[in-house]
Amino acid sequence: MAAERALRSAAPHQLPAALGAALRAEYGAESVCLLLADYGLTALLPVPDGSSPAGEPVPLHSGPAGRAYGAQQPQREDRDGGRTRLHLPVSVRGDRLGVLSVVLPREAATPEAVDELTELAGTLGHELVVAERDTDVYARARRTDRLTLAAEMQWQLLPARSCARPEYALGAQLEPAYSVFGDNFDWSADDGRLTVCVTNGMGEGMAAALLTSLGINALRNARRAGVPLADQACLADQAIHAHHRGAAHLSVLLVEVELATGRAQVVDAGSPRMLLQRDRTLSTVKLEAQLPLGMFEETDYVAQELLLRPGDRLLFVSDGVHAVAGPGGEAYGERALARAVTSAALLPAAEVPAAVLRELRAHRGRPEGDDDAVVVCLDWFGREPAP
Predict the structure, then answer these.
(1) Of 381, 325, 315, 320, nearest in space to 345 by CA
(2) Per-residue confidence (pLDDT) for residue 339, from 0 to 100
(3) CA torsion 183→159→317→231, rounded to 10°?
(4) Distances from the Cα of 21 to the Cαs of 5, 103, 115, in angstroms?
(5) How many CB atoms lie within 10 A of CB 309?
(6) Which of 3, 144, 184, 290 could form a cystine bridge with 22, CB 3.0-4.6 A?
(7) C-alpha distances in angstroms, 133 versus 19, 256, 333, 342?
């Protein structure tokens, strides 16, 4: 396909322009617009293609483009003048990046063309991930406001905001997206296991961002060395204590799931909590509380076991969620959190964190809170037995 070749040969910052030119030549497209989800997951923001000014933001939770993003299915608008606008999800391995909107003559928008363009939107997603190593164009385009330096550091630490495999689906979100301090999340998977962690660094601003950066990278270093989960916590604890001498600590919830069996190991070292939704019932997973990382020298950590069943949903939340106070001083608490999670029961994992955080903002009564908040959702499907 000429459009795919154009994408693969384009300069990293010129992907939208190269794709637009190819679609005009190959499909007779009248306009092509790449829309990327902003950091706060509130809007789809147009990426300038260099030939015309960027358009207006598009709602992420409504309208045909928002439906394409949420449902991860093409959406079609038949317009006046014999034209059709297609909205195609741009995603990579379950990570929802945005939407590609293409205006075509109606006779060109055949089912075969829609299938081809949907596949091309997936190719665009892969090219965007590679291109972001070499250009800031797409990072700038995703912002409705300037990020604080601390938030810039935190977002650079993150993996994708969602991912999916046959065994599981993951979604996560940080708030406030443009000024987050010490909360963070991380995950990694190979053929045998999935590791997820949620962190909450003490302090504010740069101090919290630097502490979280040290902790996340220490945990990654230990994980990549192949050491067991509890020893990952021990090694990260030593790294933080060696630098801060007990003056700063990092709360962390570490979870490692064996993909073949659903058997999970969990290290609870601080304030993030884990909730389990099973058979429509939500409960807090009772874990042995252990010391946050870095409080004392050479702390020993112990992993507990949990067996996941197909259909289980795990929620990981920081104290910026479960401890936030409303206008009258009442804590958000487990009851309100349970209502938010229950109302999001039919949503895919990628959309659950943003839905819970919207409920949290309504409880708080103001857009910005006094603390960071992170929500991670893990839907467990299990692995089909080998034939």
Answers:
(1) 315
(2) 84
(3) -80
(4) 12, 13, 19
(5) 11
(6) 3
(7) 19, 29, 40, 38
ω into 272 cis (within 30 of 0): no
pTM above 0.85, yes or no: yes
Q: From CA 281, how far away is CA 248, in angstroms rounded?
A: 37
Token pair belonging to 53: 């000014």
- How far apart CA 347 and CA 377 sit, in angstroms, is 11
Report angle CA 170, 259, 227 to the nearest 5 degrees.
Answer: 95
Strand order across the beta sheet in which 263-269 lies: 183-189, 193-201, 250-258, 263-269, 304-307
Q: Which parts of the chain sit beneath pLDDT 50?
A: none
Q: CA–CA separation, 371 vs 183, rounded Å?
A: 9
Q: Quote the DSSP letter at residue 74.
A: -
Structure tokens at 70: 């949420």
Tokens of 347: 């949503």
Q: How many CB atoms lie within 10 A of CB 306?
A: 18
Residue 119: helix, strand or coil by DSSP? helix
Residues 6+ apart with CB under 8 A from 70: 60, 61, 351
